[in-house]
# Entry
Amino acid sequence: MIEASTVPEFAATTLAPRQRSMILRRLVAHRSFQIGFFLVGVLAIAAVLGPMLTNTKPSAMHISHRFSPPQAKFLFGTDMFGRDIFTRVLYGARVSLWVGFAVAAIAGVFGTTLGVLAAQFRSLEGAIMRLMDALMSFPAILLALGITAALGPSMNSVIIALSVAYVPPGVRIVRASALVVRELDYVQAALIAGARAPRIMLRHILPNSIGPLLVHLSFVFAYAILAEAALSFLGVGVQPPTPSWGNIIAEGRDYALQAWWIVLFPGIGISLATIGLNLLGDGLRDVLDPKLKG
Amino acid sequence: MPVTSETSVEVRDLTMSFGSGGAGRRPTMVQVLHDLTFDIGSAETLGLVGESGSGKSTVGRILVGLLKPTGGSVRLFGRSVTGADRAANFAAVRSRVQFVFQDPHAALNPRIRVGHSIAEPIDIAGKHSRRDRDDRVRQLLELVGLPRDSADRFPHEFSGGQRQRIVIARALSLSPDFVVCDEPVSALDVSMQAQIVNLLMDLQDRFGLSYLFIAHDMTVVRAIARRVAVMYAGSIVEIARNADLYADPLHPYTRALLDAMPRPDPTRIRPRTIPGEVPSLLAPPSGCRFHTRCPHVMPRCRDESPRLLEIAPGRQVACHLFTAAETTEP
Amino acid sequence: MPADALVSIRDLTVQFRTDRGWVSAIEDISLDINAGECLGVVGESGSGKSVTALSILRLHARGTARAARGSIMLDGRDLLRAPERDLRRVRGGDIAMVFQDPMSSLNPVLTIADQISESLRLHQGLSRAEGRSRAIELLDLVRIADAPRRADEYPHRLSGGMRQRVMIAIAIACRPRLLIADEPTTALDVTIQAQILELLRDLRAELGMAVMMISHDLGVIAEFAHRVVVMYAGRIVEQAPVGTLFSAPRHPYTEGLMTSLRGRDIPGQRLGSIPGRVPDPDESIPGCRFGPRCAHVEAVCRAAVPALVSISENHDVRCTPRSQALAPACL
Amino acid sequence: MTPAIRLILIKLLQAVPVVLIVSILAFLVLNLLPGDPAVIIAGDQATPAAIEAVRHSLGLDRPFIVQLGIWFLHIVHGNFGNSLVLNQTVASAMLQRLPVTLSLAGLSLAITLPIGIGLGSLAAYYRGSWIDSSVMTVALVGVSVPSFWVAGLAVALFSVVLGWFPSSGYVPFAQNPAQWLRALLLPSIILSLFEIGFLSRMTRSAMLDVFGQDFIRTARSKGISEWRIVSKHAFRNALVMVITATGILLSAAIGGSVVIEQVFALPGVGRLVVEGILARDYPLVQGVMLIYGLTFVLINLIVDLAYSFADPRVRYD
# Structure
């Protein structure tokens, strides 16, 4: 057994000042990330607190106030049934953000699992990657259309459909970075010490190959919000009377000229959410992948 | 402490081939090691020098079980790790064999505190309680000359030389008897190199470690190795005791390497170096693989590959200049 | 400024943008490169030797570095303040550069001939065909066999040593008066390194250009340089003719480097080492930046930043105790 | 066999399993997912007998393997099954509608490529300046704003209020090229907004990536002008990325056309799919998905090969 009985002659080496969590500090200082975080944060809070911020229901019809332009009582105006657009947009935010978040989370879990498995086990690699290639051959929105058609239109169908569409790129990203990490010396060191596949994957490969996936997921979150809105707009997504940003716009479409506010505000909601998430993703990318920093 | 046999490592006729070629190419086998034979004694340092493509790193990786050789045998502490019971025998000696990497930046997981990195071999072996383990980590840090509170830090907070100390601490965590050092100082600044080489020598003296010290820099090897093996294009061309090799290199390639080494002496007039480059593994030259660059090339060198022969006690050379002498003067 | 100085750097301070603001990578660098001479610049990582070299041609990545102080004079013009257009004529024309990593320094999607002839066509107005035949001549000059065939190949087909020869061919294409070689052999194998050094030495004699050889390797410097500048942590700590520097180094850091190399001749003997580590550029150290690692540190070293003092003809040292002991008493 | 031909053959071979998986996936999507197409088609109030009738008419009561066999038979025949509603094969319905979608996607790609690459290069070249931030803001808005929403607003403004463009309808190119362009210009531009944003962001980061490489410093050390460095040294390296992006853009254009065709009432394939889904014409949806899937296997193959040939490192080895 090796023991340190004496301190070697050159023990005097000094350490540099502590540098805690550089990644977090850089993120906090990053302009895009700040703006993105603010936008997404405000929308998320509005979505969570939604029912508390309004004194009416999204489906409540104020028949005497149909097509009211924005005013003190109806901040964003009312629609053809006299429903309060502000309330509907708030409730729509709950649907849209939830769909986006759920899709990103599912894509993240499956992307990570399949990606790491494909990188670690050659026997699985071919099957997983060909399946992903095949899924990626369908334009995402078309695949989602087909799946929602099969499952019947509903919010959960949309989540499942978009998850299937957005898992494959995540798998590719994780696999690619895992393949790089797998060859690094610290993984070799663990192999020399006799580490088995689970330890290698969970402790070494996973934490070090997840950065690019996080960046990707913030963009998936944004794409999913856009896609949910598009599907709902086409009538195959979230079904009325449940308000989503997409179906509010679809319903208001025919009145765009006389009651512009019906389509304007949910559109702004979608735009702000996706802008925020894209900025968040840009910030993450700059910090986690400094090579691409602009 | 386990009983050590006289030799830590016995390598016989070791060969290694890799499949090469990806999409669009016919797979071909590329032979990177040709019939290597050498021993490393207990508490001995064998220096292994050569340029890139010589196969020296492959040797190191085979000895710690990262690569499986395609031919020949390797015995570690008397156990064969290339035969039928490869896995079982390797498991038995795993804790006695360790590795120190070239690039201290890639050798440590950036997301794990260095204390945990150092303790990883202990965790995998699963022998210690948490408390023992933490004590051991502090002990190891002290041993390699780092402050005890280093354990809670992350690798990015350390300089290159300090990270190499951490890598050495990890290599020592299970009290190994044999350590492969793969270019352990070539990524470091000159002033750091001396610190790390001294540390390795101290550790050897205290714990009786055997080293395979792989390097391209012959001056570092000169300081630390007892014997030196020189590799060229996958073969050992010369093995000799340190003092003999540097004083009187026999193989033309060894001489060329020594001549080409820059020295901190402005008065020295360096002889012109050999022409050409290390041959491609995909199309190795016939006969002696050094003949394309050798200043003493003879017709025989182009056809016949020289064998590594003992021409004096502890001194082996693979060159027809010496096999010729042997056959004409028996 | 000496009459025969080709390039004259004075009080150069260059700073880099970091998370914590602008940080000085080099401070108060003053040195001359004389026409036809071979100046060695030696130092470890973080010494600022490459930063100094890149500053001469202002080749730092845009927006990341700034010259806070100083001047770099060539033919009576300050390169630090010259307009970009004028500087472009100097780059590749009067002053050319060879970089450390030959694998990444050549453009992977352009042919060798294209990359060599580019500066000829730009600076000397050669046609495409003329450029190509000049490129082949240059490949011959840097001793690449089968030059006409190699000229039409892409870099990935060449070995590291050959690529570094191509880099040299690019650099000498317009017969520069100064060639800056930034660790040109570090990435190469020992025998190839020797070949490249021989090539550079021959070309220097043939073309009569000055060479600024930057290296971390005292051996390379000893073999190649006439005069040596030693840098540590962003400052010049000593400069002297090569014979003087290696036989009588005066700065404790230079001494430390020499002993750490020389002890290697004796097997098993502990090497002389310099304790500690190179400080980060933004680490604040009072007085001499080598102080924390110096065996001879005194109170005066911590009191003030030592000045670069001439202790004999052509021999300057930045060490307060040493220069007080050794400087000629003619003040 | 030259390396180039061998490369093409190998890529073709690699595509075979993908083609198979694509065709099975297109089948499975509507046949294996938990929803019962017969129930959905027959409607909520349908009697069990009615559902059974639907199931029989679709062949859903046959064993799974038989259904799959029939599916492959349709593919091999090239008619991709029969539409339930349109009284024609999926292939002929698709052929009828394809010119509209291709015109739309092609036009938008023609708008996107020069503008996207140009803006991205410009932003990279002037990184950190006001040009960079303005371009990137525009690009960000492009990838963030929902196209159907912008389309709605644009129709209101340009078609209804200003009367510059027709708000809907399509004129075949062969019939009247000017009218064709007039009908497609606004939808194409709107379709391009996302693509331009996407491409310019991608071009910028690829160019910046290249700018950071050592060989750019070599080029600068030769005294080459910044413009030449961008247009020659950087762009040729970034080209590899642009080729990859084109495949993604085409996919985005086809996907986006589904929504845009709906807003502008263009009789393209996207509209066909949506009509198919709303009319519960499952074979139609399946058939279109399959054809698109196979098309993109082919496009990805072409992109992959183009990518290999743009890079001498791949081309020669």
